[in-house]
Automatic annotation (TrEMBL):
Keywords: Ribonucleoprotein, Ribosomal protein, RNA-binding, rRNA-binding. Residues 178-208 are annotated as: Disordered. Residues 4-90 form the Large ribosomal subunit protein bL25 L25 domain. PANTHER family: RIBOSOMAL PROTEIN L25/GLN-TRNA SYNTHETASE, ANTI-CODON-BINDING DOMAIN-CONTAINING PROTEIN (PTHR33284), RIBOSOMAL PROTEIN L25_GLN-TRNA SYNTHETASE, ANTI-CODON-BINDING DOMAIN-CONTAINING PROTEIN (PTHR33284:SF1). Pfam families: Ribosomal_L25p, Ribosomal_TL5_C. The gene is rplY. It comes from Metabacillus sediminilitoris. This is Large ribosomal subunit protein bL25.
Length: 208
């Protein structure tokens, strides 16, 4: 579990938040059941590195005022223009209580159907699971090596794992292989002699 030292925030104006961001930190809130919300500032580089290396569902130990809190990132606001984190909410977690989270799906292998000319489609990129915080995987791997043309892989096809349960409908499609696109064959009727237009016969009748 990664530990990050955070600082208390005592000013909450927009200008104060702007100064925090300019100093390389991110305004944040720590909250939880039976716990008073605590405004803090967290180092942006440390947070981004932790989320990149361990995933958005990782457990982070936030240390402030001599006490520590095991938290998960519950919400993150980003600047749509700069693509930078501008605020983060951290929820204190009970390591023995199950939580529902979305986990990214990672397709593994090259599908046989793709080798045969088919087209891979993946309508589901994240899957909701129920798990204790310490058992949440960074990704759910789905092997599609044997997936052929006109075949699909569903949530129920993923091997079970005692550490977590899938919450979504087990019939939900994760990935499928569409057949190769075929060129439309034009039905030209009877064979025509080279260079003879289709409406040649019609012109001949008109000349009669």
């Amino acid at each position: 579990m990664t530990t990050i030292q955070v600082m208390n925030r005592t000013e909450f104006t927009n200008s104060a938040k702007r100064k925090i961001r300019e100093s390389g930190q991110i305004p944040a809130i720590i909250y939880g059941k039976a716990t008073e919300s605590k405004p803090v500032a967290i180092d942006s580089i440390q947070l981004i590195k932790t989320l990149r290396d361990e995933g958005k569902n990782t457990i982070i130990n936030l240390s402030v005022d001599g006490s520590s809190h095991a938290v998960m990132l519950s919400e993150m606001q980003t600047d749509p223009i700069k693509n930078e984190i501008v605020h983060a909410d951290f929820r204190i977690v009970d390591m023995q209580a199950e939580v529902e989270v979305e986990v990214p799906i990672h397709l593994v292998g090259e599908a046989q159907g793709v080798k045969d000319g088919g087209v891979l489609q993946q309508p589901l990129h994240q899957i909701t699971i129920s798990s204790k915080p310490g058992n949440i995987p960074q990704t759910i791997e789905v092997d599609i090596s044997n997936l052929g043309v006109n075949e699909t892989v569903l949530i129920k096809d993923i091997p079970g794992n005692g550490d977590y349960m899938f919450v979504q409908d087990e019939e939900t499609v994760i990935a499928s292989i569409l057949p190769p696109q075929q060129e439309k064959e034009i039905d030209s009727g009877e064979e025509q002699e080279p260079g003879t237009p289709e409406n040649e016969e019609g012109r001949e009748h008109n000349e009669e």
